Amino acid sequence: MIRAGIIGATGYAGNELVRLIMGHPETELAFLASKTYEGEHYASIYRNFTEIVELDCVYGELPELVKKADVIFTATPQGFLAGCLNAGLLKECIFIDLSADYRLKDPAVYEKWYGISHKSPELLPEAVYGLTEINRDKIKKTRLVANPGCYTTCSILTAYPLVKDKLIDPSTLIINAMSGVSGAGRGAKTANLFCEVNENAKAYGVTTHRHTPEIEEQLGIAFGGEVRVNFTPHLIPINRGILVTATADLTEGAGEKEIREAYEKYYGEEFFIRLPEPGTCPESRYVEGSNFTDISFKTDERTNRVVLMGTLDNLVKGAAGQAVQNMNLVFGLDERTGLTGLPMVP
Fold first, then answer.
1. Which stretches in the chain have pLDDT values below 50?
2. What is the predicted pLDDT for the residue at 95?
3. How many domains does the structure of the chain reveal?
4. Most buried residue among 6, 268, 317, 322 by CB atoms closer than 10 A?
5. Same-domain check for residues 176 and 310
6. The pLDDT value given to residue 277
7. Measured CA distances, 110 to 59, 81, 139 (Å)
8. Does the annotation mark 93 as catalytic?
9. Catalytic residue among 57, 93, 150, 154
10. Which residues form the domain of 64?
11. What pLDDT shows up at residue 192?
12. Which of 71, 99, 68 is nearest to 83 (CA)?
């Protein structure tokens, strides 16, 4: 059995990791770490685990924790893992980081967008961006996975085939995305109170959202050159889900046939990416609770643009599910192991 430890186990992504690992046939929980809830019974915090998870929350230094696990998931604030991870610890344990500490290859870009200095830039070459369907072969060989964010996973997967095959002009790419409130985390914030969120929809982080450079870097790698996008996130009153609607100019000769062929080429054999018929509008409720991403598109001959649409569960494929998918790859398992649960409707 793979011994899995979770640091930051009491956040929403950490809780989702617990749920998935408890249903994983090859993995067992080694520890659940939480500074805030140290010493408390985990099932008293999340009572959905009553009589299922018997562990108490612990808190310890990383050199102690690596001795207890084969893989450690860090669902922690930005700066935590970069501040305590080193090459020696990385030799003892696999790390799958759900923060942004190792997603961006240029520490100066990280410092600009996150407003903190990077404490272990020497580890950045070791880290592999954990977008499974794009970097599968590299993920299999690494000991440090930089698990992507929820907005970025949905945005990049939705646009990647068309950017890669140059069917759209990436300089015209505009991405609008909506997220459920769980994407903002479990911490108490006035803006996330029920009365603030219910019956409301709002844009936030306009031109400044931290996932922007992640999207640009990964699409730039696909394109083979610099990519700049407009990315605007929106908060909507649902618990879970990401829905991306993106538009871009089509390049010469690109149409519905070429776009469909590109999606089929890159995703036709992917278990966790589903391609409804062109023109079908994906809905977040049809992926809720699952590791699936639904992607579709519609061309607009009148404007010579294409509308791209993608949706996923921000806590599963956008966080914990993708992390488990990456763990499966690192340990040589079928990447679907423990992740084949169907979406929940209603």
1. none
2. 98
3. 2
4. 6
5. yes
6. 83
7. 27, 14, 21
8. no
9. 150
10. 2-126
11. 83
12. 99
